Amino acid sequence: MAGEAKFREATTEKPLSRDDLIRFIRSVISNEQQEEADPFYVLDLGATRSLLNTWFHHLPMVQPFYAVKCNPNPAFLKELAALRTGFDCSSIAEIETILSLGVSPDRIVFANTCKPESHIKYAAKVGVNLTTFDSNCELEKIRKWHPESALLIRIKVPETTFEFGSKFGALPEEIVPLLRAAQEAKLQVVGVSFHVGNRAINSHAFEDAIEVAKTTFETAAQLGLPKMHILNIGGGFTSGPKFTETASAMKVAFQKHFPNEVLGNDGLRIMAEPGRFFASSSFTLAASIIGKRIRGEAKEYWINDGVWGSLSFLRHDQDEVNCTPLGIKKPICLEMKTWSSTVYGPTCDSNDIVLKGFELPELDVNDWLVFHDMGAYTSSRGNDFNGFKTSAIPTYFISKME
């Protein structure tokens, strides 16, 4: 659960510049006088709007369904709802959250291939009528509790960077039996879903996956199923130049494998489930230095957030940390000497190490470290280990437009 949302006025038709962001963070620090300076997030809704514009500029034929699990911050979800995105939900709690924003059920895909029966019943009750499957067991649960739901068969495709292993997706030899089982159960399989892995940077992975999806469409037609009309290309997108490259490759693949559909002649609906694409650069984390130790030339610091909190992704992923030091009593400039530094989180876990061998100028207690691109799987995966409550970290969001 996200911490308290705190409003600050600013004009944000575009993302804040790095300098403006640092100034804003300084204003929060100076205005929120406390005995202990707690960590906080800044949510730049201008960045969110800009990212959506970028998405539709490069992939106008693909409707994004934001993956709620990536970051369920209420203010962020409310903005995405207002921008008319869809939502990828995986549980009752996520569906309830999205519906509470006034989002209609037809803007939700229940993208979990193995759902508890109670969750399927709930989806039926509230009218969430599009879900995924990749097993006979799931088909039987859906037949029993939500037979009116439209189905997407999730297929296993070549993956990149972060692999799902054997957990998700029907193997090639399982596709025909699953389609026949759905046909016999009188369930409507309306399309195909896949996911090439998080932070996908190999555009060929999407090209190959779209080809496999087209083969599945043809297989369903050969089996006599009603014509499929939804292609869900999953998530794994990152913003920046790689997205532009990937989008271009996907458009070529769409034209090659679904030429009539992409031209609008065959009613194909293409959807995606981006998470980090929208969340990552929309959020920035500020954490204060609570301790310091000098050992020879090495500097060691403790901050009030760590790998059991917002930086939990460091325990699983090898993301590069983008960090800016922020001096309070003395300004920091580019010409300052730096030292190889270690930054620890606040817990008593010896592995709570945020940075190691990271070049930093000498800092003091009550100075700050600002971590950029901190929206993806940060607050959503942190916990309250050792009593340091990730769930209580507040978010300051900038939401006024002129």
From TrEMBL:
Q: Where do the Orn/DAP/Arg decarboxylase 2 N-terminal domain residues begin and end? A: 50-279
Q: Which SUPFAM superfamilies match?
A: Alanine racemase C-terminal domain-like (SSF50621), PLP-binding barrel (SSF51419)
Needed cofactors: pyridoxal 5'-phosphate
**InterPro entries (UniProt xref):** Ala_racemase/Decarboxylase_C, De-COase2_C, De-COase2_CS, De-COase2_N, Orn/DAP/Arg_de-COase, Orn_de-COase, PLP-binding_barrel
Taxonomic superkingdom: Eukaryota
Q: Which residues form the Orn/DAP/Arg decarboxylase 2 C-terminal domain?
A: 40-375
Which keywords does this chain's UniProt record carry?
Answer: Lyase
Give yes or no: UniProt keyword Lyase.
Answer: yes
Q: Which family does it belong to?
A: Belongs to the Orn/Lys/Arg decarboxylase class-II family.
Q: What is this protein called?
A: Ornithine decarboxylase
In its UniProt entry, the species of origin is given as: Hibiscus sabdariffa
